[in-house]
Amino acid sequence: MTARIDINGPLAGRRALVTGASRGIGQAIAYRLAMAGATVVVTGRTVEEGGNPLPGTIMATVKTIIDAGGSAHALACDLTQADERQKLIELTRALVGSVDILVNNGAVTFYFPIKEFPDKRMRLMFEVQVMAAMELAQAFLPDMIAAGAGNIIYISSGAALHPQKPYAVARGGTVYGMCKAAMERFSTGLAAEVFGDHVAVNSIAPGLVATPGAVHHNLITPANKALQSPVEAIAEAVCFLCRSPAQDVTGRVDQIKPFMKEFGLLPASLIGRS
C-alpha cells in the first residue's frame, strides 16, 4: 500500500514534538505520526545539508511531510544546552500551543572505555539523553494532565540491559548504556506518577537499525546484519503507543521485536522512502 498522509487519521488534532528528527529513527517517527494526522514539530541540530557529516536535516524532514499533505514545523535546537532547551519549549508553544505527544529520541553518543572517557563528552551524553528528556517532560506534562490525555515516549536501547557472562569484547558503550538505563527508570517512575492523569509514558528499544549514525559508528557488521530491525518497525510501534488508551499501555519498557509480535504489528510503509 502506498504511504500517504491521512489528515483525518487516528492522531488528527494531536500535536507532537519529536527530538533528533534530522534523520534515522526520529525522522521515521515524525513521518509516521504525520501520516496518522498529527501536526509534528521536529527538532535537531542539523538545519541544512553540510551542517553535519551525516546525511539528513530537519528542514528536509519537514519538507517531506508538507509535500505529502501533512503539517510540520522545524525548530533547530542543541539539546546539550539548557538555554536552547528552554527556547525550544517556548518556540514549540508559540507554533502549536502545547504538545500532547512527546517523543524523546535525540541522542549524542561517544564510545570510549571508562578509563579513557573524556568528562566533557560524558556530560554531553547525560545532558541530551537524560536531562533534556526530563526537562521536556516537565514542561509539557502540566498541559497533558490538564487535558486528561498525553503520550511521552522514550527511545531506549538494548544497551540499557546489564551485560551477561561470558562477556563479549567491550565496545566502549558503558556510558551510553548508563544514560539509557537512567532514561528507562525515569520513564517507569513517571508512568506511575501520572497514571491517574491518563498520560501514558513508555520506553521502547528499536534494536539494531541501520541508521546513518549506526553506520557511522560501525555498529552494523556482517555478524549482526541479520539481526537488524527496519526503521519502519519503531515508527509503527510509536504510532501504536500514541493511539492506545493511556491506562492500558503505559509504564512499559520494551524491545521492538517482542513488542511488535505481542500486538500483531507490522512495519508500515513511510512517506519519503522508495
Topology:
Elements: E1 15-19, H1 24-35, E2 39-44, H2 58-67, E3 71-76, H3 82-96, E4 101-104, H4 119-147, E5 150-155, H5 174-193, E6 199-205, H6 212-216, H7 231-243, E7 253-255, H8 256-262
Parallel strand pairs: 1-2, 1-4, 2-3, 4-5, 5-6, 6-7
Q: In one word, what is the shape?
A: globular
What number of structural domains do the residues give? 1
Instruction: State the CATH class.
Output: Alpha Beta
Task: Give the termini distance in whole angstroms.
Answer: 12 Å
| CATH homologous superfamily caption | NAD(P)-binding Rossmann-like Domain
Count of DSSP H/I helices = 8
Report the biggest beta sheet as strand number plus sense, adding barrel if it closes. Answer: 7 strands, parallel
Instruction: Please tell me the CATH architecture by its name.
Output: 3-Layer(aba) Sandwich
As a percent range, the share of strand residues is 5-15%
Q: Can you tell me the CATH topology?
A: Rossmann fold
Q: What's the order of the H and E elements?
A: EHEHEHEHEHEHHEH
Oligomer: single chain
Work out the radius of gyration: 18 Å
Mean residue pLDDT? 91
The helicity comes to: 40-55%
Number of strands: 7
| Low-pLDDT stretches | none
The computed structural class is alpha/beta
How are strands sequenced across the largest beta sheet? 3-2-1-4-5-6-7
